[in-house]
């Protein structure tokens, strides 16, 4: 039986999908399923986000002006490709800074204590 995560931890982890999506899309445009696979591959399968997580996030980020889209037909199927906008680049920069601060703080706690 697993214990539910405290709200602060849960809230903190909620930002991880956005960080990963923006970072990967800042490198190249992708469609949703391609992004799901890219996250899985980039994290060594440590983070697997379902399409049910990715698509609502993509739509939300597009509504916020953080992502732009283009539609392309591939093998008779219409795909929506996502890319980061300048506003998305700024948001990504802020998320990366915040993540680095938090991960550095956590690393400090996890480090072996130094003896004087």
How many helices? 4
Distance between the termini: 41 Å
**Overall 3D geometry?**
elongated
Mean pLDDT score: 88
Strand arrangement within the widest β-sheet reads 1-3-2
The description of the largest β-sheet is: 3 strands, antiparallel
Would you count the extended β strands for me? Answer: 3
Helix content: 55-70%
The chain-level structural class is: alpha+beta
Low-confidence stretches: none
Evaluate the radius of gyration.
Answer: 17 Å
Order of helices and strands: HEHHEEH
- Residue fraction in strands: 15-25%
Q: What are the key terms here?
A:
single chain; 116 residues; alpha+beta; 4 helices; 3 strands; 60% helix; elongated
In short:
This protein has 4 helices and 3 strands, in the order αβααββα.
What does this structure look like?
The chain is an alpha+beta fold and 116 residues long. The mean pLDDT is 88. A hairpin with a 2-residue loop joins strand 2 (67-74) and strand 3. It contains 4 helices and 3 strands. The protein has helices at 7-27, 32-42, 51-63, 86-110, and strands at residues 30-31, 67-74, 77-84. The protein has a 3-stranded antiparallel sheet with strand order 1-3-2. Helix 1 (7-27) packs across helix 4 (86-110). 60% of the residues lie in helices and 16% in strands.
């Amino acid at each position: 039986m697993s214990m539910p995560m405290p709200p602060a931890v849960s809230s903190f982890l909620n930002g991880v999908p956005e960080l990963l999506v923006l970072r990967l899309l800042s490198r190249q445009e992708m469609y949703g399923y391609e992004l799901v696979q890219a996250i899985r591959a980039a994290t060594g399968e440590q983070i697997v986000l379902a399409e049910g997580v990715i698509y609502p996030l993509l739509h939300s980020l597009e509504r916020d002006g953080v992502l732009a889209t283009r539609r392309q037909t591939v093998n008779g199927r219409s795909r929506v490709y996502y890319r980061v906008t300048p506003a998305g680049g700024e948001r990504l920069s802020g998320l990366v800074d915040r993540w680095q601060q938090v991960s550095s703080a956590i690393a400090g706690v996890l480090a072996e204590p130094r003896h004087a």
